[in-house]
Each structure stands twice: as structure tokens, then as C-alpha cells.
Amino acid sequence: MSTARTAYVYVKNNTGGHADIFLSHRYGDHSPQQIAWKNVPPANTTPTALKCDYETGIGTSWDYWWIGVNVHDGPNAGCYASGRPGGDGWWDSPNKECYLESKDETSLHYAVSTSAFSITQNSSPCSTSMVQVSLCQSPFV
After folding, report:
1. Which pTM does this prediction carry?
2. Could you tell me the CATH number of the domain that includes residue 113?
């Protein structure tokens, strides 16, 4: 039997500049849950959270993540996406596996820089690298 749960994810901007942050979460084969935050100051956390629905228990599925940032200024201006090209999916199909458990049903605080996406959960933290995207295309613009 499975139990429906909800986590609320905030993201800290560690890119060194003002950034638009795009976060996508997908539970199993459900449609992605997405949010975009515009012009988040450096070293600040997003003002609102992405509501992430998931389930725990026997026969439940995985959680998948993707993050993108458009850094407007500072030493690392440009667009970055989580993982390697074709490796961690994209905005509409996040593909970085890191599953939520019952103890994650709370507010979670992730972090993104131009080199890493830190998925800091109470249960099993994960991380993946960030790669610079040569063309700032949707969802970045």
C-alpha cells in the first residue's frame, strides 16, 4: 500500500550572479511539476517553493529532477543545465534519479551553482553536475 505525500522545495542561488532558476520534478510516469523563479539574487533562496507530490510504500516509483539557470551577471553569466547533455533530461522530462522518502515530507532546501545541483533531502541527498548550455533556449528565455 502506498501513501501520498508532499514536499516543498526551495533553491538557493549559488551561481555568483542574479539568476532565473527553473526546477522540474517528476514522480514516476506522472507529468512534471515545474516552477520558474525570475532574477533571484546571488546567495538568496527562492521566495516560494515547488510543491512536489510523491508516494512512499510498497510498489512506489522514483522521483526525477532537472534544474536550469540563466545567470544574468557576475563572473559566470550564461545558461546552465543539470547533468550532461542528454543525461539528466530537460525541463519537460527530468531524468536525475533521487527519490523522496517519508522523512522528506517537509520543506527542503536545495542549492544550485554553475558547477553543481545539490539535492539536499533528509533521507538520501544526491547531487549532479551542471553544464553550460551554448544556446539559451526555452525554458531559459
Report:
1. 0.93
2. 2.60.40.3820
